Design the sequence.
């Protein structure tokens, strides 16, 4: 049997790698390329990377013909599987990783295009045995580590890497499609100012950032304040994070973004966070969140009023509270640039007053619901006329809604349109309910005769007037018509 197997293998070598240097060449006047040798991966190599680079010497053709190469790679000897054909280069990198711990055989055939072919030697090698996940040290991504890692590769294990500490990323870290990382209890990752995290998966090979313990809050999550444009997640699944403890400057979340951070999130899934899915409540962000899903968390997103305009598509349902929670204030978090809030299928929830100034135009798309926590409201051009505006134009079938978290009259304050003279201020096909609290004179307050149009709007369950004019009995710059009152305690139009 051993002799028969050897004979069959020899015949297979002849049939697959026929050499034109034989006397029986189909083109007797042509000379096949000269002999050449394989360079890498060398014969007998062990612990070879799962995505090696193969290279060989150039084969010189005596007739001066252009030479191309076919590469054969297999776990059988001789190799009979052609993995690349008609290469002009003398290197080859497989598209997919090789199997862990397997022995491979490889060879190259040089061809001159005139039926002349020359076979290289056959080399064998064994890939590294990744029978289990690699435990990464805490300094794996630090610049002062001579063995720092900048690429996490997709291996053959179900879990590729374990992180059992709060890892500090101080370099440009890239994660390949299909990589699975599990974090130990209390572990996490911080992207420093001089680092970045680029995790680009695919729909078929997403990247997974999970936990060893499959429970909400098992690991802390990821914190980034990096401004690098390399920070990007595509097709990344984050689960069981949100324990907190990465910073005292933010609410806990699976992904926390510090002030001035840059990040792009596309087709990202965040599940089973103990707290928020994403927290980005500071200022001067360059952040976009597109077509992402956040579910089974406490609240999907907590961010500022400007970053809220950079959320598009996605699914934010299935959480304890399905809202996009927002913060504003008298400092850097005011809406001082023009911003549009899109209809995302869940309400926007204001946790502080929404302050609009610096000429910013706040546009609200039809169907958007904005709810206010108790005593909160909107203030436009509070101190000076800066030409800021609120543009809330719904439709009869898809109105915009301003409401309170608490469903009682006077739960939230008012839309306070103060010194603005922008002709773009418009409220049309809108429902305003449960306003008129915290000392407000009306659901819509007008200070110092601002320019404003209010039409086709319903005022419902208001603990004040519908419209209230301060510093004058009338507002000559107000255009109003076809508005409806339902349970409005103070009447339609009031003044000081």
Sequence:
């Amino acid at each position: 049997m051993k002799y028969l197997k050897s004979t069959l293998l020899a015949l297979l070598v002849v049939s697959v790698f026929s050499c034109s240097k034989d006397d029986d060449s189909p083109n007797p006047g042509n000379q096949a390329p000269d002999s050449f040798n394989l360079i890498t991966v060398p014969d007998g190599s062990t612990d070879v990377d799962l995505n090696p680079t193969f290279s060989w010497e150039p084969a010189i053709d005596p007739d001066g013909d252009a030479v191309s190469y076919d590469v054969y790679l297999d776990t059988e000897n001789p190799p009979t599987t052609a993995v690349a054909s008609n290469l002009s280069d003398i290197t080859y990198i497989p598209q997919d990783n090789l199997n862990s711990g397997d022995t491979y055989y490889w060879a190259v055939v040089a061809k001159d295009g005139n039926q002349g072919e020359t076979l290289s030697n056959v080399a064998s090698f064994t890939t590294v045995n990744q029978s289990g996940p690699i435990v990464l040290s805490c300094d794996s991504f630090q610049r002062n580590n001579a063995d720092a890692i900048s690429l996490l590769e997709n291996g053959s294990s179900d879990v590729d890497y374990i992180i059992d500490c709060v890892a500090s990323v101080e370099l440009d870290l890239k994660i390949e499609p299909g990589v699975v990382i599990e974090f130990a209890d209390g572990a996490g990752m911080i992207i420093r100012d001089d680092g970045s995290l680029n995790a680009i998966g695919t729909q078929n090979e997403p990247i997974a950032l999970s936990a060893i313990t499959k429970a909400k809050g098992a690991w802390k999550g990821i914190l980034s304040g990096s401004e690098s444009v390399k920070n990007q997640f595509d097709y990344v699944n984050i689960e069981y994070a949100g324990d907190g403890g990465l910073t005292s400057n933010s609410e806990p979340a699976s992904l926390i973004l510090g002030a001035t951070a840059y990040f792009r999130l596309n087709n990202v899934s965040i599940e089973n966070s103990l707290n928020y899915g994403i927290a980005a409540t500071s200022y001067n962000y360059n952040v976009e969140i597109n077509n992402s899903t956040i579910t089974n968390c406490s609240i999907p997103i907590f961010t500022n009023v400007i970053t809220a305009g950079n959320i598009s598509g996605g699914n934010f349902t299935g959480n304890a509270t399905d809202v996009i929670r927002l913060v504003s204030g008298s400092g850097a978090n005011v809406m001082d640039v023009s911003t549009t809030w899109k209809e995302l299928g869940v309400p926007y929830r204001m946790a502080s007053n929404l302050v609009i100034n610096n000429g910013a135009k706040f546009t609200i798309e039809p169907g958007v619901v904005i709810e206010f926590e108790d005593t909160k409201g909107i203030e436009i051009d509070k101190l000076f006329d800066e030409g800021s505006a609120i543009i809330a134009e719904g439709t009869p079938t898809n109105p915009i809604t301003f409401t309170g978290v608490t469903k009682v009259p006077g739960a939230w304050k008012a839309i306070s349109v103060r010194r603005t003279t922008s002709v773009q201020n418009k409220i049309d096909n809108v429902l305003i309910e449960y306003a008129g609290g915290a000392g407000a004179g009306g659901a819509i307050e007008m200070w110092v005769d601002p320019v404003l149009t209010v039409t086709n709007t319903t005022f419902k369950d208001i603990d004040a007037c519908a419209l209230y004019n301060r510093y004058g009995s009338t507002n000559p710059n107000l255009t109003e018509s076809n508005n409806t009152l339902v349970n409005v305690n103070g009447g339609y139009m009031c003044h000081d």
